[in-house]
Amino acid sequence: MTAVLTVDGLHIDFQLPGAVVHAVRGVDLEVAPGEVLALVGESGSGKSVTAAGILGLLPRNARVTAGSVRFQGTELVGLGERQLNVFRGAGIGMIFQDPVTSLDPSFTIGSQLGDTARLHLRVSRNEALEVSRTWLDRVGIGDPDRVLRSYPHELSGGMRQRVMIALAGLSGPKLLIADEPTTALDATVQKQILDLLLGLAGEAGTAVLLITHDFGVVSHTSTRVAVMSEGTIVEIGQTGQVLGAPSHAYTRTLIDSVPEIGQRHLQDGHQRRLLGAPAATARVRLSERGEAPRPPADRPILELHEVTKEFSIGGLGTGRHRTTVRAVSEVSLSVRRGEIFGLIGESGSGKSTLARLSGALLPLTAGSVTFDGADVGTAGKQGLRDLRRRFQYVFQDAATALNPRIRVGDQIARPLLRLGKATGRREATELTHRALELVGLNAGYADRYPREFSGGQRQRVGIARAIALEPDLLILDEPTSALDVSTQAAIINLLLDLKDELDLTYLFIGHNLAIIDFVCDRIGVMRQGSLVETFPAGELFSADRQPATRALLDAVLPVRARRREDLLAPSTIKD
Amino acid sequence: MARRILWRLANLVPLLFVISLLVFFISKAGPADPVKNVLSEKMSPEQIEQIRQAYGLDQPAWKQYLLWLRDMFAHGGGISLSVRSPVSGIVFPAFLNTLILGAATTVVAVALGVLIGFVSGIRHGRLIDRAAMLLVQIGSNLPIYWFGLIVIWLTAVQWNWLPPGGMHDLRGDGGFGDLLLHLIAPAFAASLVSMLIIARFVRAAVIESAGSDYIRTYRSQGFGRAAILGKHIGRNILPPIVNTTGLTIGSVITGVVFVETIFSWPGLGSVLLNAIAGSDYPVIQSGILLVAVTFVVVNLITDVLLDLLNPRLRHGGA
Amino acid sequence: MTTTTTEVRAAAPPRLRRSAAARFVRNREAMLGLVVLIVVIGISVLAPWLATYDPNAGDPENVLAPVGSAGHLLGTDDQGRDVLSRLLHGGRGALVVSIVSVAVALLIGTVLGLYGAFAGRRTSGVLMRIIDLMFAFPVILVALSLAAVIHPGPWVLIGTVVFGAVPYVTRIVFAEARIEREKDYVEAARSLGASEAAILRTEVLPNLLSSVVIYGTSLVGVNIVFTASLSALGLGIQPPSPDWGRMISEGAKVLVTGNPGVATFPALAILLVALAFNWLGDGLRDVLNP
């Protein structure tokens, strides 16, 4: 059978002021009818540009410089907009990453689906409405009539992505290009959306080109996979084969960078590190004073007692009724000295708010936070300043967590002086340099601005800023979720190193269960502001886990499917 | 929705109070006793005192404010100090003329501004866009007074297309067509600043909308350029157009006042300038109050229009 | 196996970025604006020595001399005053008034905008509502009211420009400070023990300054044009001081009678200075906010 889509030696250049960037350099792809081909790569690998180039949807400053794209035998490169429109939608449908911005905010769902139906199916207004209703039903929307009348902002992210699938599917395309269709969604929604997409494509015999950065998604969805790096495809083959025995070193690094759920049991204890990117820190101490004997473990260092946080929205002047939203509701937990406590939940579950409450960055509505025996809420200004040094915070996005207009050295040194960790400029500089070296950065970087660093380096600076104060507790708020997988692995290894080196305690907040499971000693699961349960990491697969935890566990898409079967029933599955 | 409009209406009360208070204080904070200013020194102190009582100038400040407010509402601002005739007879006809010119100016500003902005927005980066932006940059840095002069010179003197000023042809029938002919040049001149502001905002809105994810969705679905431009971009730049028009009302009024003297338009601007030269406070006060209240009302209308255009509010969103 | 480590640990590689000053010099637009402004300000300062005639001395024998006539390069006006000499003197008032009042407005606007962004929801709501109204308010009313209270003159211009510019600056600062406020570095500073005042001064303000400077530069240009029109109406700088705006309205009488130069030369001077401020502002934007 001939391929639906053939991409041959595709080159795409970006014209930037004063430079030409070769984003795609000679990509060859072939998508057979009905197959699912995954195109996987890290950010900047050129995978999304390739997808946009197929349909001629490149940004203005980009253009195809060489190669060909053939859809069912027709050459698409070089066609004008009008000729391309014959194939767009009707022949090739496209689903984008962000369902929030990909629908027009000013029109109802019914109007947007109806327009598409009328364009492609040449039906009347009433028939178009009927088609839209049927399709909303097919993508699993329970009350299509309400949704048809709704504006995009009235729907959740998952619902909107369902609408996008209906929009792309109703014209019956032969090929669907899905560009990171679930990256903006919660893990539990991701699997539903992927299964829906695959199910519909399977029914209609539609081929799918799925662009993703997640090997779990690759493993779950695709029959074949192409791995892309720096504008070229480094490896292409059957999914099982590429994931099981990658032939290219880059592919192997990427796969090894992702912790598999349950992987901690394979390499436990102090040797627990991710293979993709080993990071060993120099065996140095920040200062001699840091050697003071620590109190015995098992004593809680951070205790939350019935912590509640309410936000109020609306009220006078906004034209809306004043309502209070409970972001965190009566959460009690304790973090023991020397452990890594993981907190996981979907977006909006209140985990980040809880982290901020633990770090005294937000006032409590009710309850109490105790740090090493001292009540943080009643500590007073000076007392809180003394405590601040001892619990530090690492943020998700180092790009915004570092002040862009201040040299990183100053950003590390200022708090040292302010909180009395260093007595003078010179000592502060010295400690700053040591902290930078401890996180694997050259001390010479101290006089640079954050924008001169890469994403991973910036996160290292953020960690250096926190550990320079020699805290007892680090609150890590999704410290790796803004990073590519290989960088993520390096940062996780660094954090594990630092913990051993500096005798730290971590409160680690995340949304990726595999990472939480790999890194943490105990895990707490949050759902709708409440702490559902806490348990030792080893008991993640235990039968008496709460439904919320189970849902998270079910949503994990393992890279090598057999691993999980091993864990659940180690003796019955043969390799 | 209704709740929101009511809230906006309720907001007007303190606003109007503050404006009236400020306008009232124009005469209080003036350089000299308004009575002494106008009346020559021939009068005896008793006579001056009599007049002061007649005008209520011997009362405490808050009482004077209330009296003044009553005057404003009941008698349209009292008696002019210089012309010795009711203020309302001077201010209202002039205000109406200004309103006509202001409305025409707004129409010209919105029509041309949206046209320039839309065309250069959809041709972003092309020659026509760059040419338009150069014109916008030069135009917004031209002194409006000189611009008005050049418009008269070209349209009336050089080409002899349009009348050189005034509202009606003295020999003409004073009909609507005549008025329209007299409106073109001053409305165009007065619209310069607001037109270019609107052009810039519309261009930015078009570029933003054209580069948005939802336009990419429709392009990927094979919708034609006309459908995308007309429906999706057109609808999504409406709120910024209304918003910007509301914001430029101030510039429109300012432009009209600048232009009135140049085009000998018998409007409130000329009246106010004369009143200032003659320290005629009742005229100044009622004129300024009238324009300020007009501004507040127009502002309210744009706010409500924006609310109506916002689907998040229209559908009673959370 | 140690590639990542050695990569980050390696000696700091040379820096790629040029300093802001170097980028400024390479920015054609900014340099052009700067040079024009230096020349104009230089001329204004040195006008008494540069001008060949007393700008206010009329010569009844030589009214409305055409451009290029002997001794009067740009001709004379209807009172026989030398247009070139008046032009050299005419920018002084407008420049001083615009720069001073925009500086005042920047100060007030920055303080208000920062306060609005970091104050409680209600305070900030009321403040920004007032600012929004001021933003759209017809500033000409302010000029007229001021002229009624104090006599027309430079103070009317300063008051009007400050009133007109404060809401612009406040909105810019407010909007940017709101964005900055939500960034994690503010919270990071808080977690590192910085007081609220220190966060505003040492963390947030440096991130806003470039915008304020850029915006202020363009505002000066806008207001040179605006004050010229006010002066032309008779609300601003008063005769006999030579002033570009005033020269336009004086030249109006003779413009239609075939002497367009008297009004047009000052208009062009205003245009050039305003454009120069615009260029400088745009150039600074490219340099300071890469």
Topology:
The complex is a heterotrimer of chains A (575), B (318) and C (290).
Chain A: E1 5-16, E2 19-31, E3 36-41, H1 47-54, E4 62-71, E5 74-75, H2 81-87, E6 92-95, H3 109-121, H4 125-138, H5 144-149, H6 157-169, E7 175-179, H7 187-204, E8 207-212, H8 215-221, E9 224-229, E10 232-238, H9 239-244, H10 249-257, E11 300-315, E12 320-336, E13 340-344, H11 351-358, E14 366-371, E15 374-375, H12 380-388, E16 391-394, H13 398-401, H14 408-418, H15 425-438, H16 455-467, E17 473-477, H17 485-502, E18 505-510, H18 513-519, E19 522-527, E20 530-536, H19 547-555, H20 561-568
Parallel strand pairs in A: 3-8, 3-9, 6-7, 7-8, 13-18, 13-19, 16-17, 17-18
Antiparallel strand pairs in A: 1-2, 1-4, 4-5, 9-10, 11-12, 11-14, 14-15, 19-20
Chain B: H1 2-28, H2 34-38, H3 45-54, H4 61-75, H5 87-122, H6 127-139, H7 144-158, H8 176-210, H9 213-220, H10 225-236, H11 238-247, H12 249-262, H13 268-277, H14 281-309, H15 311-314
Chain C: H1 3-9, H2 20-26, H3 28-50, H4 83-118, H5 121-136, H6 139-149, H7 154-182, H8 184-191, H9 196-233, H10 244-255, H11 261-288
Helix pairs in contact in C: 2-11, 3-4, 3-11, 4-5, 4-7, 4-9, 4-11, 5-7, 6-7, 7-9, 8-9, 9-10, 9-11, 10-11
Can you describe what's shown?
The complex is a heterotrimer of chains A (575), B (318) and C (290). Chain A has 575 residues and is of the alpha/beta class. Chain A contains 20 helices and 20 strands. The relative contact order of chain A is 0.10. Chain B is mainly α and 318 residues long. In chain B, α5 runs antiparallel to α6 (127-139), α7 (144-158) crosses α8 and α13 runs antiparallel to α14 (281-309). Chain B is globular. The relative contact order of chain C is 0.15. The model of chain C is unreliable at 1-10 (pLDDT under 50). Chain C has 290 residues and is mainly alpha-helical. Chain C has helices at residues 3-9, 20-26, 28-50, 83-118, 121-136, 139-149, 154-182, 184-191, 196-233, 244-255, 261-288. The two termini of chain C are 37 Å apart. In chain C, 74% of the residues lie in helices and 0% in strands. Chain C is elongated and about 80 Å long. At the B-C interface, α1, α7, α12, α13 and α14 of B face α5, α6, α9, α10 and α11 of C.
Low-confidence stretches of chain A: 279-293, 562-575
> Alpha-carbon distance between the termini of chain B?
12 Å
Helix content of chain B: over 70%
SS class of chain A: alpha/beta
The total of beta strands of chain B comes to 0
**Helix/strand structural class of chain B:** mainly alpha
Give the amount of beta strand of chain B, in percent. Answer: under 5%
- List the secondary-structure elements of chain B in sequence, H or E: HHHHHHHHHHHHHHH
Number of strands of chain A: 20
Strand content of chain A: 25-35%
Biggest sheet overview of chain A = 6 strands, mixed
| Average pLDDT for all residues of chain A | 86
Q: What oligomeric assembly is this protein in? A: heterotrimer
Radius of gyration of chain A: 26 Å
Shape of chain B: globular
Distance between the termini of chain A: 33 Å
Shape summary of chain A: globular
